[in-house]
């Protein structure tokens, strides 16, 4: 994309010459409805619509599809830095909740900018799918064209998500990276599942979460939550299959239960079963990194996803990797499900 400031100046000069009509058109792989009364300019990289009234301006840009570099959140962050932060000195965006459009993953955010005597708001929406990312990038000095922006984004139509042409194996690939995954990986006190108490996490008890990946492509997930102030101990048991291809790990559970136990003798030991309930099965694909932390001299299994999951809970506060959970191989011999007889 051109420097946004230079582009804005160009658009303001073109207002009297060219007007876009509200009609359906296509740019690259995207179909859209042009905003009524906006000037239009197009080049190989984007098509842009501009409008000025009473000293206020609004510029809506639709970019050509680019290759995706990761998940939708990562694509959004990279494009925001390139176009908003570096191009306009924009503030850190306020992010909305991710959604979907035509099967594509949609991310949106808004911030403010001030550069070269111009100031206003920056709005960015990205659509990730088919290993591509499409961006709608808006700069405006007022809320006068909010309706035009919303209608334009709503009008965007994206091509159907292509079915995968790669056969899914029934077991992890026989590679060095896949071999690293085999075994038990655990984390403690890093995040809270929805059914535990976030306020008491790490201060009045613990939660231990463990994945066990077996060579035959099956996996077991176990979680144990203990609170001193609770009468019961909660244990999650889940089993299913996994596929590890490239740097993507897909976990597909077959059965998942949440069991509540009384504390045996009032201590951290499983006593009588209070209740058992099935948990909704959640298939999740993670981006995988094996990271060596030299400070603690340990390898970690880093799992990343676009959004928090029911199984893993909120993301870790460790921002070495964005949207991540960290697992190590310490204390994995302890049986999290052992019941005192």
Task: Provide a short characterization of the protein structure.
By secondary structure, the protein is mainly β. 13% of the residues lie in helices and 45% in strands.
Give the tally of β-strands.
20
Q: Which structural category fits the helices and strands? A: mainly beta
The dominant shape is elongated
Beta-strand content: 35-45%
In angstroms, what is the radius of gyration?
25 Å
Mean pLDDT across residues: 83
Separate helix tally:
4
Main pleated-sheet profile: 9 strands, antiparallel
**Helical proportion?**
10-25%
Distance between the termini: 68 Å
- SSE run: HEEEEEEHEEEEEHHEEEEEEEEE
Low-pLDDT residue spans: 1-19, 164-174, 190-203
Tell me what the structure shows.
It is a single chain. Strand 14 and strand 15 form a beta hairpin. The chain is mostly beta strands.
Topology:
Layout: H1 4-14, E1 24-27, E2 30-33, E3 39-42, E4 46-53, E5 56-63, E6 66-67, H2 72-88, E7 94-95, E8 99-101, E9 104-115, E10 118-129, E11 132-140, H3 146-155, H4 176-181, E12 183-188, E13 205-213, E14 218-227, E15 232-245, E16 248-263, E17 270-278, E18 284-293, E19 298-304, E20 324-327
Antiparallel strand pairs: 1-2, 3-4, 4-5, 5-11, 6-11, 7-9, 8-9, 9-10, 10-11, 12-13, 13-14, 14-15, 15-16, 16-17, 16-18, 18-19, 19-20
């Amino acid at each position: 994309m051109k420097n946004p400031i230079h582009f804005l100046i160009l658009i303001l000069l073109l207002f009297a010459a060219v007007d876009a009509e509200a009609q359906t058109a296509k740019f690259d792989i995207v179909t859209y409805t042009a905003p009524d009364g906006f000037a239009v300019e197009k080049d190989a990289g984007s098509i842009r619509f501009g409008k000025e009234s009473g000293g206020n301006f609004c510029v809506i840009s639709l970019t050509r599809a680019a290759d995706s570099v990761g998940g939708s959140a990562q694509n959004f962050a990279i494009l925001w830095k390139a176009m908003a932060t570096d191009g306009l000195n924009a503030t850190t965006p306020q992010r909305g909740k991710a959604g979907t459009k035509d099967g594509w993953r949609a991310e949106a955010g808004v911030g403010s900018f001030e550069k070269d005597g111009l100031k206003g708001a920056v709005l960015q929406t990205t659509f990730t799918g088919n290993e591509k990312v499409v961006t709608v990038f808006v700069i405006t000095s007022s809320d006068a064209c909010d309706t035009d922006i919303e209608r334009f984004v709503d009008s965007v139509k994206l091509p159907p998500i292509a079915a995968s042409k790669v056969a899914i194996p029934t077991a992890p690939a026989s590679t060095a990276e896949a071999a690293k995954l085999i075994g038990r990986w655990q984390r403690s006190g890093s995040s809270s599942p929805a059914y535990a108490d976030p306020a008491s996490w790490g201060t009045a008890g613990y939660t231990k979460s463990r994945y066990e990946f077996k060579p035959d492509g099956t996996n077991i997930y176990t979680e144990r939550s203990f609170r001193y102030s609770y009468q019961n101990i909660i244990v999650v048991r889940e089993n299913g299959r996994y596929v590890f291809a490239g740097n993507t790990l897909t976990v597909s559970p077959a059965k998942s239960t949440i069991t509540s136990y009384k504390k045996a003798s009032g201590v951290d030991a499983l006593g009588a079963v209070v209740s058992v309930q099935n948990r909704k099965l959640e298939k999740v694909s993670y981006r995988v990194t094996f990271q060596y932390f030299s400070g603690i001299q340990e390898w970690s299994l880093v799992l990343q996803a676009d959004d928090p999951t029911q199984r893993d809970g909120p993301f870790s506060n460790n921002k070495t990797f964005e949207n991540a959970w960290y697992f190590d191989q310490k204390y994995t011999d302890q049986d999290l499900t052992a019941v005192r007889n």
